[in-house]
Amino acid sequence: MPHTLLLRLPAPGEEDTEWLSLEESGQPATAKQRGPLSLAAAVGRSAKVVVLAPAAQILLAEPELPPGSGVKLARAVPFALEEQLTEDVDELCFALGRRLPNGRTPVAVVSRSVIQAWLAQLAGAGIEPTVLYADISLVPENPGQTVLWFEKNRLAVRRPGALPFAVELTPVAEALVVAGVIRDPLAESSEETAEPSAPESVVLYVTREDWALVERDFQALAGQFASLKVQLLTDGALPWLAGDLPTTRAVNLLQGEFARSTDYGARWHRWRTAAILAGALVVAHVAAAALQIHQANRETRLLDEQIAQLFSQTMPAETPQDPRRQMQSRLDRIRHSGPGPEYFLHTLDALSSALATTPNTKIDSLSYREQALDMKVTAPNLAALSQLSQLVGKQGLSADIQSSAPVEGGVEAHMQVRAEGAKAHR
To answer: Is residue 253 within 8 Å of residue 58, measured between CB atoms?
Structure first.
């Protein structure tokens, strides 16, 4: 679907409307179309609708307004434009743009009855405009030339850094004189005339049909311009005006009592299905998260029960208060209470070296606890046991023969090897 529908209302006395579908990038999605509003409405249902109204019924100005905003600023506009207004202020609608760097504020003025008629015409076709601009406000500005747009009997003029305006007058020469684009030959012959202004460089935009009607007039006036360049609008004016839409600073007439209202009921109907699906997705996500939390809590309870059972088996003398924390505390104390596995390995290494130099001596069993190695040793005689004890002692350990008894082929003894200073145990 097109992102924007650019629609141009017919001038007084005309019936057909022009419209153009624009993509999101601003490029035309289709060729310009012309016909009754009912046909444009079919395209505009799902698009942003930009409406261009005939500038002949709109006054564009840039008065110097006092500081302020909102209602206070709006009340000052009629007084600033008093000399340019021909109707009763109460019958007019004033729309304001953003204040410019030069301190002036763009203003668009239109009769309340005229804008009401436009909106009624659009509403009758089922079209709700997003914005409403004067058509000539989209005439692009050229920094080095005066831009002219001729259409039927209307001449639009836009000079660099100035507001566009339109003159509805024939013939072309008189329209150009009134617009100040060329010199007035009658004024030049007058003695009171000030020094004439320099000729302007002009670029003229016109359709083939209109150019055929005014080509001779412009050729006859070519000497009145510093330069004249003609650009034919082969697809009509609407695609040309659309080019200035993305960056336009045109004043939106839909302000105050005519500000665009939002039909929340229609929008809800349009997005209802998507909202329901999104709600269902959120509910499913919450339900899945709740199930995961329930399972995690159940696994935690089972783990706590297992820890409590193991605590009762390993530490029956302690009262279980927080078994998980109590067991962790006991493990930490054991881990930091003395030498770790490296001491046990050192003891085995020392014992292995001593046995290598004590023939016919073997270890029948051993156990290690509290920094002491208890073992049952078989040796050929007591002298061999004494030699083993001395060899272990040279490794920085203490080796005590705690008991011995004669057996067939030698002596069987109970020996304990421990670090110097470690308590002996039985």
So the answer is: yes
Quickly state the pLDDT bin for 340 (edges 50, 70, 90): low
Give the Cα separation of 37 and 45 in Å (integer).
Answer: 12
The predicted-structure confidence for 359-416, as pLDDT tens digits, reads as follows 888 888 888 777 788 889 898 888 888 888 888 888 888 888 888 888 888 899 998 8
Report the distance separating Cα 333 and Cα 211, nearest Å. Answer: 101
- Neighbouring CB atoms inside 10 A of 233's CB total 19
3-class secondary structure, 268: helix
> Which position has the higher pLDDT, 83 or 52?
52
The average pLDDT across 197-220 equals: 93
Give how far the C-alpha of residue 299 lies from the chain's centroid of Cα atoms, to the nearest Å.
41
Nearest to 111 by CA among 54, 50, 69: 54
Residue 315's pLDDT is 66
Question: What was the pLDDT predicted at 337?
Answer: 54
Number of CB atoms found within 10 A of residue 245's CB: 17
**Nearest Cα to Cα of residue 138 among 51, 259, 231:** 51
d(CA 39, CA 154): 27
For 401, the enclosing helix (H) or strand (E) is strand 397-407
Does the bond joining 171 to the residue before it have cis omega, within 30 degrees of 0?
yes
Tokens of 416: 């304990």
The whole-angstrom separation of Cα 230 and Cα 190 is 32
For the chain, helix, strand, coil in percent to 5 are 40, 25, 35
273-307 pLDDT, tens digit per residue, is 777 888 888 888 888 888 889 888 888 888 877 77
* pTM of structure: 0.59
Where on the phi/psi map is residue 403: left (φ > 0), alpha (ψ -120 to 50), or beta?
A: beta
In this structure, are strands 92-96 and 131-134 parallel, antiparallel, or unpaired? Answer: unpaired
Cα separation, 322 vs 422, whole angstroms = 33
Rounded to 10 degrees, the C-alpha dihedral 262/265/266/268 comes to 100
Strands (E), 115-246: 131-134, 146-151, 154-158, 165-168, 201-206, 227-232
pLDDT higher than threshold 90 for residue 102: no
